[in-house]
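hey can u check if this looks right to u? its 284 residues, i copy pasted from the old doc so theres a chance i mangled smth
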Amino acid sequence: MTDTHDEEHSSFLSKIFSKKTEPTSQDELEQVIREASENEVIDEDTEEMLQGIFDINRLRVSDVMIPANEIVTIHVNSSIEEAAKIVLKTAHSRYPVIGEDKDHIVGVLLAKDLIPYACGLKELEGGSIKSILRSPIIVPEAKRVNSMLKEFQQNRFHIAIVVDEFGGVSGLVTIEDVLEVIVGDIDDEYDTEVNSEHIVKSKEGKSYIVSGVTEVEEFDEFFKCNFSELAEVDTIAGLTTHMLGKFPNVGEKLTIEGFEFKVLEANDRRVHLLEVTPPPATEQ
């Protein structure tokens, strides 16, 4: 069985690479994969997954986290009934539990841990949820997503609290957020088609469709600008969130150094697509 698997693996790679096309850098490898998709050597799903592997190596936790203002929390002094109401209303599986404010995370509550108490099968010590909390995992915004995935796997937890350089809570990240970088969201009939290129000129020709995971340096190089000097972020999605001071909604607009940005596609975790209209002098 191993030999068959190795042969299939070798056959797959040989379809993509030859001695003439063997890449010597990541940029060349990404180009080969795009060409393989265009030539129908691999399908679009495979191309997107391979691209996701590149993205997971360069993105930071701050690029994929759920921002603080979107987090549903439960207070540490909540009763079983109060906590159960929040769980039933929001239908999440894990909740950060706070003390005096959202910057004081004292634990994580798993919805499944509430069941025996909510059903009356067990009695809670002191009447509050404090005794059934799990210890919170704290990670910095700058942590790389690939490193976060390894930590999730090694420690068998599914949620981490993200803090900024001052120790304040800036968001939370789940294993789902990390895996979606590779496999993508589950599409429905309302989702728009995403081109594998990070920056694509629109049909009208005056604006560009830009992927949220586009590195700021790549954006700077393409448009001959200096956005990398504006903030310590890695991606365009991170830059727009930083400049707005909050997580942007679909349809929201902002102007940065003469560039007009409009959010085309986003969910409650991150910005996927933006429409960017550059100043006339910088149009490609």
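The longest helix spans residues 2-16.
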